[in-house]
Specification:
Blueprint lengths: L15 H5 L2 H4 L5 H6 L11 E10 L2 E11 L4 E10 L8 H15 L10 E5 L2 E7 L3 E2 H6 L8 H20 L12 E3 L5 E3 L4 H6 L25 H4 L4 H17 L9 H10 L12 H10 L10 H9 L10 E5 L6 E12 L2 E6 L7 E4 L4 E3 L9 E4 L21 E8 L4 E6 L5 E4 L4 E3 L9 E4 L19 E7 L5 E5 L6 E3 L4 E3 L8 E4 L12 E3 L2 E2 L2 E6 L5 E4 L10 E3 L4 E3 L8 H9 L5 H25 L17 E6 L4 E6 L5 H10 L8
Antiparallel strand pairs: 1-2, 2-3, 3-5, 4-5, 6-7, 7-8, 9-10, 9-13, 10-11, 11-12, 14-15, 14-18, 15-16, 16-17, 19-20, 19-23, 20-21, 21-22, 24-27, 24-30, 25-26, 27-28, 28-29, 31-32
Length: 677
């Protein structure tokens, strides 16, 4: 729970009154939280909760040991609970907080591997989340071991417990976001229980508090790149938890916390800017090493699902097995270029794959860093279409009426013997073969990776008030589900947003290298943007496009402060030189391509003017006087030089007046011989 340890070995540090100090009398039981919550099923009366002493402290509040009093007409019952003391919530955010907690409370009921919340209350003006009390955590356990590390067999056993707990949480649509050893609790049977259920997101969205706002969406040492300002670099997804889980596993194995000697800002620089990854200990089983490396992919869309992670922890010595559908990449981190079925496993990173273009001829492929499970396998009944990058399908589809990239097909089945997808088209009774790497899931004409515009009238974030907090209406489709729904990432929104295809229309995609500027109708942009001249926005170049459509922009035409700018795709337009009218405007566009263009052009202009001035001076001082007979000049001194070739040595005359220095002098001052001197 937010960096907290539930271990009873921690000494008693303060009583309620000692801890809250002057706030103890100021905040009573009449807060807006209590007034709003008293009729909710998750509400626990403050008088029934007695705080004992603090047992943990973390970024998202402190954890206290408390007693909860349950009273009926027949009996009184007291039992120990753990209480998470949240920051002071501003009155105007109470309603939002309670609605989100109530949804979380209902979703988490009945989970076996998660320490789900038992209710919410308030003590001394602070919201409290009541949970089951556990005697210890994995963080407590490794702190007492030599080297602060667990044996591999224990890491694998705990890992299976934790992955199943995370999958339970994800099945309710909840992200953990703060996965670390201190949040992995241990029950009486030494089974690991997940002690985190999305509190960072709950805090982050309601951080307009009476105290300091929560600065991060997790604990810095375990945070994925998109967790650092998720509204800007997001979105958060289930794959975000894969990064934090892998960080905690590395710590459990090595005994060293990731980025242990760095400050939060230094971790931000390493993870987000430099794209560095935590070091994976050597000597791990191949399955574990492979899955941990995949969890540290910078782009969350390339990270494994928790189903893949569970498989790796249940079979740590295996990467793949016969019958697996495998994606093959030309290089590590690249796009999937082939999809095949494993026919035989030769070694840890070498397989015999059956590809659909070589039926009956399995191909040996090596390189575990280029291989991964096909995480988005098609299902029968889904609709697919030919990818735009495919000029013609491998199997021809001759006879299919009006074949085009927009024509949709229905998946009839997958052939597990030859790696072929069988599809049918409307208007044809025949079945057709398809290469799985050439087709993609489609819904309403939309596929993953499409840029879309949210149609008018659909409010993505109605609670956002400030202009810099509003959500962009242009986003990127993250996933097309089997039921036809699409998940879209929007700049300004922390998490993926699920909608139906009619709610969107396609937008023009943007890519790195394009030159853009703010539209003329944008008066107050989301991000700061430089002005070239009063009344005109400067032009920049896209250097990176984030998964949510956010744009990182440089201004190469500026000598200073060129890098580190941002833009909202909804507010910009692409600038192309062939579409610019006027010579001056075209030159201004060229000038924006690099800061050195203006000085170079200015220098050339100066040289041209200087040359023209010299010509004028020569004309003025030596006016034309008609045709003159040149005087005889003495014979020029002739030098000889040796010219050596492959056959002989000869001597040729060499005129010293044709040297480079003489040529430059002639260019600037003219040829003195032409003046009759």
């Amino acid at each position: 729970m937010g960096g907290d340890s539930f271990g009873p070995s921690l000494p008693r540090t303060a009583s309620e009154e000692d801890y809250f100090g002057d706030d103890f009398e100021q905040f009573g039981s009449t807060s807006g939280l209590m007034e709003t919550s008293s009729q909710r099923p998750s509400w626990i009366e403050p008088d029934d909760l007695k705080l004992m002493h603090r047992i943990g402290r973390g970024l998202f509040g402190d954890v206290w040991l408390a007693t909860l009093h349950n009273s009926t007409e027949e009996f009184d019952e007291f039992h120990e609970v753990a209480v998470k003391m949240m920051p002071l919530i501003a009155d105007d955010r109470v309603r939002i907080l309670l609605a989100k907690f109530e949804a979380l409370f209902e979703a988490a009921q009945g989970l076996n591997r998660v320490s789900w919340p038992q209710g919410i209350s308030t003590k001394n003006g602070k919201a409290c989340i009541i949970m089951k009390f556990y005697e210890g955590s994995i963080g407590d356990k490794i702190a007492k071991l030599p080297g602060n590390a667990l044996p591999i067999k224990d890491v694998v056993r705990y890992g299976v417990d934790l992955v199943r707990g995370i999958m339970e949480l994800h099945s309710c649509g909840v992200l953990a976001l703060n996965l670390k050893p201190c949040n992995y609790l241990l029950d009486e049977q030494d089974t690991a229980v997940l002690g985190e259920f999305g509190i960072p997101l709950l805090f982050f969205e309601n951080s307009a508090t009476k105290s300091e706002p929560v600065p991060w969406m997790g604990t810095p040492n375990y945070m994925a790149p998109e967790q650092w300002d998720p509204a800007l670099r997001g979105p958060l997804s289930f794959e975000t938890d894969a990064w934090g889980f892998a960080c905690s596993i590395v710590e459990m194995i090595s005994g060293v916390k990731p980025w242990a000697n760095l400050t939060a800002n230094e971790i931000l620089e390493a993870v987000v800017v430099k794209r560095e990854k935590p070091a994976i200990p050597a000597g791990l089983p191949p399955g574990l090493h492979h899955i941990l490396r995949a969890c540290f992919e910078y782009d969350y869309r390339r990270r494994p699902t928790f189903a893949e992670i569970l498989r790796a922890f249940t079979r740590p010595d295996e990467l793949f097995q016969e019958g697996d559908w495998i994606c093959v990449r030309d290089k590590p981190g690249g796009d999937c270029t082939k999809i095949g079925i494993v026919k035989a496993v030769i070694g840890p990173d070498s397989l015999y794959l059956q590809l659909c273009d070589k039926l009956g001829e399995p191909v040996q492929i090596s390189g575990g860093d280029r291989l991964s499970l096909w995480k988005d396998k098609f299902r029968t009944g889904e609709r697919v279409k030919l990818k735009n990058s495919v000029s013609s399908p491998r199997f021809g589809w001759a006879g299919v009426p009006q074949v085009s990239h927009d024509k949709e097909a229905l998946v009839v089945g997958l052939n597990d013997n030859d790696g072929v997808v069988v599809v049918s088209f409307r208007g044809s009774k025949e079945l057709w073969k398809a290469d799985p790497v050439e087709i993609e899931r489609v819904s309403g004409g939309l596929v993953a990776g499409d840029w879309v515009f949210l149609r008018g009238g659909w409010a993505v974030d109605p609670d956002a008030a400030a202009a810099d907090q509003r959500t962009s209406r242009i986003g990127v489709i993250h996933h097309v589900a089997s039921d036809g729904k699409v998940q879209v990432a929007f700049l300004g929104r922390e998490c993926l947003w699920t909608g139906s295809p009619p709610e969107f229309e396609k937008a023009v995609p943007l890519s790195s290298g394009q030159f853009i500027r703010l539209r003329n109708d944008v008066l107050s942009p989301r991000f700061q943007w430089p002005v070239k001249v009063p009344g005109n926005w400067d032009m920049g170049r896209i250097v990176n496009v984030l998964p949510n459509g956010g744009l990182m922009v440089d201004f190469p035409g500026r000598f200073r402060n060129r890098k580190g700018w941002w833009a909202d795709a909804e507010e910009v337009e692409v600038v192309r030189i062939q579409e610019i009218e006027g010579i001056v405007q075209k030159y201004q566009h060229i000038e924006s391509m690099h800061w050195a263009i203006r000085p170079v052009v200015s220098l050339l202009g100066f040289l041209i003017v200087a040359r023209a001035g010299i010509v004028v001076v020569n004309v003025m001082t030596h006016p034309f006087q008609g045709k003159q007979v040149p005087k005889e000049e003495p014979a020029r001194k002739i030098e000889t030089k040796a010219v050596i070739d492959s056959h002989c040595v000869t001597k040729e005359p060499h005129n010293t007046s044709s040297s480079p220095l003489a040529a430059v002098a002639t260019l600037i001052f003219g040829d003195s011989s032409s003046n009759g001197r």
